């Protein structure tokens, strides 16, 4: 059994659904038994923890806990943040997450796959991490919102895709 990069890390998981937090803890600790998971179900609790403790990673829901505000706090402290969401899987929320410094965007329906995903986020740099997930998200968004969903801010999405493509070319 390989050793997870999550071992010995301290993670803050924030969601207003206690069952999601419990599931996250179970899934992560199963693969990384020495990982410490702190949980918060409110913005106030999460904000207090983010500003008083040191974390290696933050997993944030967007709804019900002022996730974008918490993302800003995490980004300001250079803490990698993964957005975990069911309801805000849309182009505007994705764009705002990227602008605020989220390292990745993970849908709750894929929760059983969270550990390898988090490991990838932590072992790849920012651009490479987004490059790995953006194609999948783009396919999902094309299906759900139509293939012109990026037209709402063509400049932003073109620059984002160019950054990913440039990074991939530089790796070759």
Topology at a glance:
Blueprint: E1 10-14, H1 18-31, E2 36-40, H2 43-52, E3 57-60, H3 67-76, E4 81-85, H4 91-99, E5 104-107, H5 114-123, H6 126-145, H7 154-171
Parallel strand pairs: 1-2, 1-3, 3-4, 4-5
Helix pairs in contact: 2-3, 6-7
Describe, in plain words, how this protein is organized in 3D.
The chain has a 5-stranded parallel β-sheet with strand order 2-1-3-4-5, sandwiched between helices. Strand 1, helix 1 and strand 2 form a beta-alpha-beta unit. The protein has 7 helices and 5 strands, in the order E-H-E-H-E-H-E-H-E-H-H-H. The mean pLDDT is 90. The protein has 172 residues and is of the alpha/beta class. Helix 2 packs parallel to helix 3 and helix 6 packs across helix 7. The two termini are 30 Å apart. The radius of gyration is 16 Å and the shape is globular. 27% of the residues are buried.
The run of helices and strands is EHEHEHEHEHHH
Class from secondary-structure proportions: alpha/beta
Main sheet characteristics: 5 strands, parallel
Helix fraction, binned, reads 40-55%
Unreliable residue stretches: none
Instruction: Trace the largest sheet across and list its strands.
Output: 2-1-3-4-5
Choose one word for the global shape: globular
**Radius of gyration over alpha carbons?**
16 Å
User: What percent of residues are in strands?
Assistant: 5-15%
Q: Total number of β-strand segments?
A: 5
Distance between the termini: 30 Å
Mean pLDDT: 90
Enumerate how many helices there are, as a single number: 7
